[in-house]
Write a sequence for this structure.
């Protein structure tokens, strides 16, 4: 079996939850050949692999969203759209329910210069018509350049080369899902899509807060990602979510209920047996935050809450364990915040082997503004460590339980709730008996419902089911 695994902005260049999951999935199926299609913004010669590539990975291919001839001013062959193509593109840009089959075949069957397409008379006319009807209060040239910038990444993906495989598996919606949809349309091979987070909702939240998108254009950007999501749900044969509420949201966004299946994240709890614990004589209270230092993890709220709690309990020490490379400006702002506020006992470790540190923690903390089903919480449970987490994604389900009576394995706190987070920190810090009880509850939960071996076994069964159904047609 040859599987094309499609990832966006992650493996093998970025560490973290999704990338670790991709690595674990491939290692769990040594007899399956994987081709990894990784999607990034642009080429970066400084990028290095952050994982040892498994021997069953035959190739890693790269597609860059901003890597096309569009920036080249040389003369290109003009692009003329048929009536059917014009209608499909106009619906994609400005209406609803575009005919994705027409759009995909357009890029597959024609040698298209994106420079010529985006600068051509057809793109100009449909943009001008929509501008005259809805955007006359802004300068037309700004509107036109916004439309070109908005659709360049999508068209670059649709123009990229294809890869023959028995099954295509994207680990998100978005551009990765579009690439999988394209393969399904062109080759008829089964397409499986996993959503570790809810891509459409996350992009909407990001755009609403973004400074780089002018307020007047935010709705157009949001609508584009909604249409991309609809395409992915249309072409995917099966759509995986991590928990029941996420599945319900997929259905609300237009995914057919019969396509959906819930497969949670998992960890190999056995690997956490015998990990190093606190050093003898360490009387402090160690709080671990296993995360990439990025805005979505809201490390600044964590630092504010820690500073508030430490004013009342000087034994507290915060360990922020994860990459500082993905959002370097934000990471530096966090360092500056520690310095300017004179917050003592904060350690930024950078990328580490979690198993070497997590046993030395008394409990974990996660203050994200958006999550799916955090692997870091499950890793903490495997090490019998409770967790304080914001009420996002499936954090409440993990900590309070959904199908068992093991008890709470930590505390749920409000997003950006500095004072509530500080109170939870102090409560756990001051009660060792409660920490141990909660840690044991988490450990029992992860063994019962989130065993990595069972999780990847379910994916193996899906692979076999989907490829066999194709053979039977």
């Amino acid at each position: 079996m040859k599987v094309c695994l499609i990832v966006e902005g992650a493996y093998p260049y970025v560490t973290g939850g999704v990338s670790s999951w991709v690595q674990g999935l491939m290692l769990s199926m040594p007899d399956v050949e994987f081709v990894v299609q990784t999607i990034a913004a642009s080429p970066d010669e400084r990028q290095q692999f952050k994982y040892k590539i498994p021997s069953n990975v035959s190739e890693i291919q790269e597609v860059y969203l901003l890597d096309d001839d569009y920036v080249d001013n040389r003369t290109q062959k003009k692009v003329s759209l048929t009536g059917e193509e014009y209608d499909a593109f106009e619906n994609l840009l400005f209406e609803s329910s575009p005919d994705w089959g027409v759009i995909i075949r357009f890029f597959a069957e024609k040698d298209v210069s994106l420079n010529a397409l985006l600068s051509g008379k057809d793109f100009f006319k449909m943009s001008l018509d929509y501008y005259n009807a809805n955007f006359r209060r802004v300068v037309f040239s700004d509107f036109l350049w916004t439309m070109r910038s908005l659709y360049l990444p999508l068209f670059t993906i649709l123009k990229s080369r294809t890869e023959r495989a028995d099954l295509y598996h994207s680990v998100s919606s978005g551009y990765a899902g579009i690439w999988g949809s394209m393969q399904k349309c062109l080759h008829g091979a089964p397409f499986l899509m996993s959503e570790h987070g809810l891509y459409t909702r996350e992009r909407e939240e990001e755009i609403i807060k973004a400074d780089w998108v002018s307020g007047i254009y935010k709705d157009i950007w949001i609508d584009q990602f909604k249409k991309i999501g609809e395409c992915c749900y249309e072409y995917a044969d099966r759509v995986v979510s991590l928990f029941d509420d996420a599945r319900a949201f997929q259905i609300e966004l237009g995914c057919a209920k019969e396509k959906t299946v819930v497969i949670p994240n998992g960890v190999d709890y056995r690997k956490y047996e015998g990990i190093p614990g606190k050093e003898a004589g360490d009387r402090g209270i160690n709080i671990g935050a296993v995360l990439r230092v990025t805005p979505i993890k809201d490390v600044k709220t964590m630092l504010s809450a820690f500073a508030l709690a430490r004013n009342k309990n000087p034994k507290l020490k915060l360990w922020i364990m994860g990459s500082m490379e993905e959002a370097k400006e934000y990471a530096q702002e966090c360092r500056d915040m520690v310095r300017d506020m004179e917050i003592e006992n904060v350690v930024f470790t950078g990328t580490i082997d979690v198993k070497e540190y997590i046993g030395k923690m008394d409990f974990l903390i996660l203050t994200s503004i958006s999550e799916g089903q955090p692997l870091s919480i499950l890793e903490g449970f495997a090490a019998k460590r409770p967790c304080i987490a914001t009420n996002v994604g499936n954090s409440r389900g993990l900590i309070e339980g959904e199908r068992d009576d093991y008890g709470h394995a930590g505390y749920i706190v409000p997003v950006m709730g500095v004072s509530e987070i500080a109170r939870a920190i102090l409560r756990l810090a001051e009660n060792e008996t409660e920490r141990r009880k909660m840690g044991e509850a988490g450990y029992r939960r992860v063994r019962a419902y989130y065993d990595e071996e069972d999780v990847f076994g379910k994916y193996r069964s899906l692979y076999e089911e989907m490829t066999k159904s194709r053979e039977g047609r």
About this structure: The two ends are 17 Å apart (CA to CA). The chain has a mean pLDDT of 91. The chain is about 45% helix and 15% strand. Residues 4 and 25 are 13 Å apart (CA to CA).
